[in-house]
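Deliverable D2.4 — example input (structure tokens):
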């Protein structure tokens, strides 16, 4: 007769599941790539992580650890999910993992930026986010679609390109599509205007260790 399969008691199985979940939560709290995988378990999520997503997630982790420089630029053709991984998921993770951080998102479209802020709030409402960052949530009653203040002291502001980043110094700046389209990007006058804004209003607002991601 074949040997009987040994089965673990139910209590042991629950302990193993609990330990595994704790490991996943701790990894998601301290590593952005792990956070994205925790948020979107592959095979069970419609959000499929491509090699590009994994690379961009590792880029953010390397910026945090100092393995990469403070200034990074990403140039990828449209509809590859670069904004969702960087300007939404990375921002959500940074706001939770770095208490007291101040993040600014900029771009040519105010409506698009407001949509990013709404997407970030949606992520913060997931059970995965609440497990990774317990107690971190927006302070409601602060009625602005382009700003968030969180219970851990972190803040987010969304400004269209050209507007001044007033207030406290910026720890992370995400510039997502500074130009509305190819015509603006190829216009020397428009490019010079964006450059002046970046050097005069953006860099001057960064903290000494401030980081910039241009998409």
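Example output (designed residues):
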């Amino acid at each position: 007769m074949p040997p009987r399969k040994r089965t673990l008691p139910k209590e042991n199985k629950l302990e193993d599941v609990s330990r595994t979940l704790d490991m996943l939560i701790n990894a998601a709290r301290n590593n952005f790539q792990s956070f994205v995988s925790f948020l979107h378990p592959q095979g069970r999520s419609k959000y499929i992580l491509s090699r590009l997503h994994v690379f961009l997630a590792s880029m953010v982790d390397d910026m945090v650890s100092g393995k990469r420089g403070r200034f990074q630029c990403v140039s990828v053709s449209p509809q590859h999910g670069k904004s969702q991984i960087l300007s939404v998921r990375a921002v959500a993770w940074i706001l939770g993992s770095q208490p007291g951080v101040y993040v600014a998102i900029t771009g040519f479209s105010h409506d698009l930026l407001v949509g990013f802020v709404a997407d970030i709030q949606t992520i913060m409402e997931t059970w995965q986010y609440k497990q990774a960052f317990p107690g971190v949530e927006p302070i409601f009653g602060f009625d602005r679609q382009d700003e968030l203040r969180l219970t851990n002291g972190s803040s987010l502001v969304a400004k269209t390109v050209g507007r001044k980043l007033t207030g406290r110094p910026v720890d992370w700046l995400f510039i997502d599509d500074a130009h509305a389209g190819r015509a603006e990007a190829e216009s020397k006058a428009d490019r010079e205007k964006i450059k002046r804004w970046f050097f005069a209003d953006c860099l001057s607002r960064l903290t000494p260790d401030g980081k910039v991601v241009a998409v």
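The radius of gyration is 20 Å.
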